[in-house]
Specification:
Elements lengths: L4 E5 L3 H9 L4 E5 L14 H13 L3 E6 L8 H13 L4 E4 L2 H10 L4 E4 L8 H9 L4 E3 L6 H8 L4 E9 L10 H6 L17 E4 L18 E3 L4 H6 L4 E4 L6 H19 L8 H10 L4 E2 L22 E10 L2 E6 L3 E2 L3 E4 L7 E4 L3 E3 L2 E3 L1 E2 L4 E5 L9 E6 L1 H11 L6 E9 L4 E8 L4 E9 L1 E2 L7 H8 L7 E10 L3 E2 L2 H20 L27 E4 L3 H7 L5 E4 L2 H6 L4 E2 L15 E4 L11 E4 L8 H8 L4 E5 L6 H15 L5 E7 L2 E5 L3 H6 L9 H4 L2 E4 L5 E6 L5 E4 L4 E2 L10 E5 L5 H20 L1
Parallel strand pairs: 1-2, 1-10, 2-3, 3-4, 4-5, 5-6, 6-7, 7-10, 9-11, 22-26, 28-29, 28-40, 29-30, 31-32, 32-33, 33-34, 34-40
Antiparallel strand pairs: 7-9, 8-36, 12-13, 12-21, 13-20, 14-19, 15-16, 15-21, 17-18, 22-23, 23-24, 25-27, 34-39, 35-38, 36-37, 37-38
Helix pairs in contact: 1-2, 1-9, 2-13, 4-16, 5-6, 9-10, 9-11, 14-20, 16-17
Length: 764
């Protein structure tokens, strides 16, 4: 079995040190710009230089996340950031924006690029296309099952998979719920996590609320594959990624150490079983309940936690009673002063507090043990039998902090000592990677009067490496004769030699220092055939019948409609783990794997997240691409700026598509709330959402329609259809309407209205 990389999150320098010292092979972190965790403790330029040097000295790689969408007016700043990262020894970039990828490949062809999970790579074709694009690694969607990971590994590209941490209910890169509802884009690092809020599932027509075990219908548990490490190694994945740039250093350190030990045990031929104690440690650090996730086909109640969207810790006791401002609790696990606690309440907010005061027999004490009855100050009303949760274990935190103070592994070094009487002693040190340094002592060697410098004495002094990232492998004593030198001289030479070695190890790409950007050549793009003026995407037979005779291009992803109406242009689905292949002249492409099809003319949809002219140019440089729809996260003014920038560079207007009407997808999910509440959440293709209309209802009473597509992936739509105003319509772009919930009469009325507007604009 091949040793996978263990990749750890670093939202701060303390978290980075914890990751390194607990055995990470690489860390990923964000700069203060263009990272998908805008609210993490990202690194400024000075901190980033420090982080890279520290990691390289400890033989750990650094990947920087530049994984947000880049707007046209941000391109110059993004390029300047890439210049800085390239010349400051960053090992690789994790990138989402196709335009930025295209520019980097031409500006710095030796800079290693990883396709972010926000590129929505979820099938073998997607892996193949980013490999052809020149990327070194693809970060697969969290929804990818382990069998598909094995298939994707056959493409010969490094694959990164998430093995631990928070799960999103929507495919990364395809979620617009935070952006459209609150103006905080997940694709711009600002997600407000509306999926962790309460919702009800209701029938749209009657308003009837479907009974549910809790309110948090879109909140998944946390991924934990520690017991599946061996199977994941056999999947062919190159890198195991731990999520958590927003987490505290103790969380990072403990999770890294757990996976380090499990990976090393498996590779050593041991077959470790699940250790309950280790799982309890991880639960104490953070958990919403654990699941092995989509990797291992978990769904329904094995995947989602509708009861609480936050850290639940572990249960350590039960409330017996409450009197005089204190609760009496019988403990089932140890409790220490300083622990974080929570008491669960059925009606009302849970009560969270720190165990600053613990009473036993009416006396203050520092701890409580299983079986004991203790009292805690709580003034809010609490019912008997309520659960007491431990959300922070203060003793565990101290233990993890102590473990993280020393590196889990050290680099082996070999010393060679040379010299003769009357000359300084040479201390030569080399590491296992070939880095070397040499230092001469200030004082000269003297003939020994008593105990000469033998190999044992040299080893004793040179082996004092506890405050370094090194460990002693050997000492080669080549001194000529019986010689003496003060111990302080040996220690100082050792310190200087190791400092020099660490500095040399810190720079992994010295050739980059003098390199500047290569001349950026524009892409080769040939003018394309004109697109249809009005494109209408439909979902139902009634819509097809109502629009069949109108001068518009119908598009659908519904197989029955594609077969029944030859004039309908087929569309791929947004998610297709094993894509259906349509042998047609035209095809609407919803995801990047479709770009591997070179014999069909493709119209790329908003799922490609085009927000700048570089991304537009990259797609249009593909021979098969005939047109590109803008991202739904940019406004008409930004769209116009992209078109103008493209024209200035390439001399003609790009064939673009403007989304002008329709319910936009807020989420595309593998987790179906309809089946989960009406069945058991494990069935697929149940058709329940087509037999009855459903919606998710938030606390404000707003309804978000939900339905399943042809492959049974759940779509959550915005509450009202989006529509551009007349003054925002671009006559140079094709217009796209998406009809989903509209009946036949409304569909025809809407389409005819836009036909009239387009005819009027073109006639002016």
């Amino acid at each position: 079995m091949k040793r996978p990389e263990l990749l750890a999150p670093a939202g701060s320098m303390d978290a980075l040190i914890a990751a390194v010292n607990n055995g990470a092979d690489a860390v990923y972190l964000g700069s203060t710009r263009f990272g998908a965790r805008a609210y993490a403790g990202n690194f400024d330029e000075q901190q980033l230089r420090q982080a890279v040097r520290y990691c390289h000295q400890h033989e750990v790689k650094v990947y920087v996340t530049v994984n947000t969408l880049i707007f046209e007016n941000e391109l110059d700043d993004a390029k300047a950031l890439i210049d800085f990262l390239y010349h400051n020894d960053v090992d690789a970039l994790i990138v989402q924006d196709l335009g930025l990828v295209s520019w980097i490949r031409r500006a710095y062809p030796d800079f290693e690029l990883h396709a972010s999970t926000q590129m929505h790579i979820h099938n073998r074709e997607g892996v193949r296309w980013v490999r052809q694009l020149g990327m070194k690694r693809a970060v697969l969607a969290r929804e990818t099952p382990v069998e598909l990971v094995r298939e994707c590994a056959e493409e010969g590209l490094d694959l990164e998979i998430f093995v631990y941490g928070a799960l999103c209910v929507c495919y990364s890169g395809e979620c617009l719920m935070s952006s459209i509802n609150g103006g905080r884009s997940g694709n711009r690092g600002q997600c407000a996590q509306p999926c962790r809020l309460p919702y009800q599932l209701v029938e749209r027509d009657s308003g009837r609320v479907i009974e549910a075990p809790g309110e948090y219908l879109l909140s998944p548990m946390d991924l934990n594959t520690l017991d599946q490490v061996e199977e994941l190694i056999r999947s062919g994945a190159t890198s195991f990624k731990i999520e958590g740039r927003m987490k505290r250093p103790e969380y990072v350190g403990a999770v890294v150490r757990a996976y380090r030990e499990k990976i090393d045990a498996v590779l050593a031929g041991m077959r470790p079983t699940s250790e309950e104690g280790e799982q309890i440690r991880l639960k104490k650090l953070f958990n919403r309940g654990f699941t092995t996730g989509y990797l291992f086909h978990q769904s329904g109640p094995a995947l989602m936690n509708p009861l609480r969207p936050n850290h639940v810790g572990i249960r350590i006791g039960t409330v017996l009673s409450q009197r005089n401002g204190r609760v009496q609790v019988k403990l089932t696990a140890p409790l220490h002063q300083g622990d974080g606690l929570r008491i669960l309440r059925e009606n009302g907010e849970d009560i969270g507090f720190i165990a600053n005061y613990i009473y036993k027999h009416d006396l203050l004490c520092a701890q409580g043990q299983p079986g004991e009855i203790i009292e805690l100050p709580v003034r809010e009303k609490v019912r008997p039998e309520a659960a007491l949760l431990q959300t922070t274990d203060s003793e565990l935190m101290k233990e993890i902090q102590a473990q993280s103070a020393q590196p889990a592994r050290r680099t082996a070094v070999r010393f060679t000592i040379r010299g003769r009487a009357g000359e300084p002693m040479l201390v030569d040190v080399r590491d296992e990677m070939g880095f070397q340094s040499q230092v001469w002592t200030e004082q000269v060697l003297q003939p020994a009067q008593k105990a000469p410098l033998d190999t044992g004495r040299l080893t004793q002094q040179l082996g004092k490496l506890n405050d370094t990232p090194f460990q002693l492998e050997s000492v080669d004593n080549q001194l000529e004769g019986a010689l003496f030198l003060p111990v302080q001289q040996i220690n100082e030479a050792r310190r200087q030699a190791l400092d020099q070695l660490a500095q040399r190890r810190a720079v992994r790409y010295p050739e980059r220092v003098q390199l500047q950007r290569q001349g950026i050549q524009p892409l080769t793009i040939h003018e394309k055939q004109p697109l249809p003026g009005l494109i209408v995407q439909i979902e139902t037979r009634e819509q097809a019948e109502a629009l069949a005779e109108l001068p518009v291009q119908l598009i659908s992803s519904v197989p029955a409609l594609i077969q029944a109406y030859p004039q309908i242009m087929p569309s791929t689905l947004r998610v297709q783990e094993h894509p259906v292949r349509y042998e047609t002249e035209w095809l609407q492409a919803e995801e990047i794997g479709t770009l591997t099809r070179t014999t069909t003319r493709l119209i790329c949809t908003s799922g490609f997240n085009v927000t700048n002219s570089e991304a537009l140019a990259l797609l249009l440089s593909q021979t098969s691409v005939a047109g590109v729809e803008f991202s739904l996260e940019i406004n008409p003014m930004q769209q116009s700026a992209i078109r103008e920038a493209f024209k200035e560079q390439y001399g003609f207007f790009a064939p673009t598509v403007q989304y002008v009407y329709g319910y936009r997808d807020l989420m595309v999910s593998k987790a179906c709330p309809v089946n989960r509440l009406l069945k058991d959440g494990t069935k697929r293709n149940c058709q329940l959402c087509h037999q009855q209309a459903y919606a998710l209802k938030n606390k404000k009473g707003e309804l978000y329609p939900v339905f399943g597509d042809a492959a049974c992936y759940s779509h959550c739509l915005e509450k009202t259809p989006f529509e551009l105003k007349a003054g925002e319509l671009d006559p140079h772009s094709a217009w796209k309407l998406r009809l989903t919930l509209e009946d036949s009469a409304a569909s025809r009325q809407i389409v005819e209205r836009f036909l009239r507007i387009r005819n009027r604009i073109q006639g002016e």
